[in-house]
Specification:
- The chain contains 15 helices and nine strands.
- It is an alpha/beta fold.
- It folds into two domains: about 240 residues, Alpha-Beta Barrel (TIM Barrel); about 70 residues, Four Helix Bundle (Hemerythrin (Met), subunit A) (Up-down Bundle).
- The protein has an eight-stranded parallel beta barrel.
- The termini are far apart.
- Bound molecules: flavin mononucleotide.
- Flavin mononucleotide binds next to helix 10.
């Protein structure tokens, strides 16, 4: 019987997390999300261990704002030494966890022999985990699919997970669909293979001592609460990125904190000093406004406010008054 890792931190950060999403969950989005929830675990976009090894902009790749805690750095790679080095860097930089991406089916990632294609090589993944565990004290978790191509049976999934658990993986976040590495692009691989929650449920039933989280297709807090009756945690991707505001009661409903309701205008007001400092550090307003756009829905004039915010923020000299104005417009309608 495989037991829960002794290394696991006694917390329940993982009851609800915001999934790693390339070009979406950058540090600015994560800071926005932190105005909405203090508790949900936030994931970075995937960073390739090799890129971290060779990069001259390592600090830029790793950097995050202290308010982003708890935060997990997602790594990609198949080389135990490079991953172990990257894990050490992440720990030194202050990340709370490291997550290994075994779910990405993109051709680029496949060509590098990592991501979802590693589901065919549990022994390599196990070596990577073992080495990362040896070099760090923070949890090492794995995000994977139900299977890939022909390697898609329940027994294969169990074998895969067992291998990684023995190597020391602390948690398993299962995107509840398989991936087709041949024939489907990444976007299709997030919609065409059907969601199969019952297979994740079987995994949890067969391995009650492992920490198993459900990912894929969760759209509301209620969906997550229902899932938490079965699984140890839930991970939300697109529904959180596209509709961040609907998650504003996570802390009370999922984590049992006292309820604090924040308005959309207040969220934007709170982001203004952050956006100002981004401008002062040679960033542009659009870095942040592109995420704020997602907040502005289901309010009077939302389409117009979004349009204006988008157009004005992309101008060269866009300044903070644009956000102040949006916050005022939302406040005027009671949002
Ligand atoms: C635009 C986009 C980028 C993504 N990038 C990553 C990534 O870098 N690493 C990863 O493990 N998954 C990535 N995913 C997959 C999500 O983390 C998640 O597993 C998937 O969207 C299913 O969850 P959802 O139905 O809640 O969105 C990405 C998804 C989207 C939509």
């Amino acid at each position: 019987m495989i037991s829960k890792s002794l290394n696991k931190k006694a917390n329940n950060n993982y009851r609800l997390s915001i999934a790693p999403m390339m070009d979406c969950t950058d540090r600015h989005f994560r800071v926005l999300m932190r105005q909405i929830t203090n508790k949900a675990l936030l994931y970075t976009e995937m960073i390739v261990a090799k890129a971290l090894h060779y990069s001259t902009k390592r600090e830029q790749l790793l950097d995050f704002n202290p308010i982003e805690h708890p935060i997990s750095l997602q790594l990609g790679g198949d080389n135990p030494s490079l991953l172990s080095e990257a894990a050490q860097m992440a720990e030194d930089w202050g990340y709370d966890e490291i997550n290994l991406n075994i779910g990405c089916p993109s051709p680029k990632v496949k060509a590098g022999n990592f991501g979802a294609s590693l589901m065919a090589h549990p022994e390599i993944v196990a070596k990577c985990i073992e080495k990362m565990k040896k070099s760090t004290k923070i949890p090492i978790t794995v995000k994977h699919r139900l299977g890939i191509d022909h390697l898609d049976s329940d027994s294969y999934l169990l074998k895969f997970v067992d291998h990684l658990a023995i190597a020391g993986a602390d948690r398993f976040i299962v995107h509840a669909r398989k991936a087709w590495l041949k024939g489907l692009n990444p976007k299709q691989n997030r919609t065409i293979p059907p969601l199969q929650y019952e297979r994740v449920r079987k995994l949890k039933e067969n391995r009650p001592n492992l920490i198993v989280e459900l990912n894929g297709g969760l759209k509301t807090i209620d969906d997550c609460l229902k899932a938490l009756n079965i699984y140890d945690g839930t991970m939300v991707g697109r529904a959180a990125y596209n509709h961040p505001f609907i998650w504003n009661t996570i802390d009370s409903k999922v984590f049992g904190e006292e309820e604090k309701i924040i308005s959309k205008s207040k969220i934007i007001q709170q982001l203004i000093p952050y956006a100002q400092s981004n401008l002062e550090n040679n960033g542009c307003l659009w870095d942040i406004s592109k995420h704020i756009l997602k907040l502005i829905e289901k309010t009077p004039g939302a389409k117009f406010i979004r349009q204006e915010l988008s157009e004005k923020s992309q101008k060269k000299k866009a300044d903070i008054s644009i956000l102040e104005n949006v916050a005022q417009q939302l406040e005027a309608t009671g949002h």
